[in-house]
Amino acid sequence: MKGIFTALMCSFDEKGQINEKGLREIVRYNIDQSKVDGLYVNGSTGENFLISTEQKKRIFEIVKDEAKEQVKLIAQVGSLNIEEAVELAQFATDLKYDAISAVTPFYYKFDFEEIKDYYNTILENVDNQMIIYSIPALTGVSMNLDQFGELFENEKIIGVKFTAPDFFLLERLRHAYPEKLIYSSFDEMLLSASVLNVDGAIGSTFNVNGHRAKQIFELAQNGQIAEAREIQKVTNDLIADILENGLYQTIKEILKLKGVDAGICRKPMKTLTDEKIEKAKQIAERYL
Ligand code: NGF
Questions:
Q1: Measuring CA to CA, which of 81, 201, 210, 273 is 20 to 30 A from 232?
Q2: Per the domain annotation, does 266 fall within a domain?
């Protein structure tokens, strides 16, 4: 379960329906071209919070069918509707996903006891291992070292996808829980997190830049920091341009230029203007 995991995109058509052929091509591109170690399915990058339960299930099915046992698969099942979270967790487990993951419950200001109950409830109903998905910038939910420790007391919780620029907490977590899996999750901070000995990373830009993420991670593990820094620099030039142009839309546009039918993003995400499509082309030509 260690290494570079792509936070997988999904291809949608103009009606917001899943483009199965396109999704299969995205899976193949990640496995065959970028050679990532795993796929994180139905995360933020997969536009999970914009789609129906049936669509989430169908994406789990298609990805598993395409990837088979070639890479590790993590299914993000988190939902404010706890019955949906349990249903998706059971569904992905039946499909033999290697692990499930759930975003911390958001929107309402849940206290820590409620958050803990959410994870324990999902896990009481499913025979699988869980990776907490912590992304305070989007959920507004921050947890401290002791709270992560309390969640980790449940042995089925095997790790955390740590999407925050808090390197103090990351170091404390690494030190306190050497047996748990820690995935860093801001791609632009991959080297800094790798130096702190995270077990892997999960990221959106790996859909097009997974090969460089692998290099950064492996070089850092070998102590080749200067070489890793060079690749992180190019990576961050790329990420800065992608962020400026529109994150998920630009990644999809770049995938299309690579021959992958990545479709468009679901509403309310907007589509790229002609000018931004041209800019995406320039980004691809410059960096990929
Ligand atoms: O897209 C976001 C939103 N974060 C992703 C990643 O943390 C999301 C990150 O790769 C993810 O893993 C998921 O799909 O669930 C950034 O897009 C990237 O570092 C550029 O800033 O914060």
A1: 273
A2: no
- The yes/no answer to whether this complex scores an ipTM above 0.95 is yes
Q: What is the CATH number of the domain that holds 155?
A: 3.20.20.70
- Residue 28: CB atoms within 10 A of its CB come to 14
| Domain total in the chain | 1
CB 208 within 8 A of CB 255: yes
Q: Residue 252 falls within a domain, yes or no?
A: no
Query: 72, 107 in Cβ contact below 8 A?
Result: no
Confirm whether 235 is domain-assigned: no
**pTM higher than 0.90, yes or no?**
yes
The finding on whether 79 has its CB within 6 A of some atom of ligand 1 is no
- Distances in Å between the Cα of 113 and the Cα atoms of 56, 78, 109, 116 are 28, 17, 12, 5
Nearest-angstrom CA–CA distance, 18 and 34: 23
pLDDT digit string, tens, across residues 119-169: 999 999 999 999 999 999 999 999 999 999 999 999 999 999 999 999 999
Residue-range definition of the domain harbouring residue 136: 3-224
Tell which atom from ligand 1 comes closest to the C-alpha of 163.
Answer: 7
202 is in an annotated binding site: yes
Q: Is 204 in the pocket of ligand 1 (CB under 6 A)?
A: yes
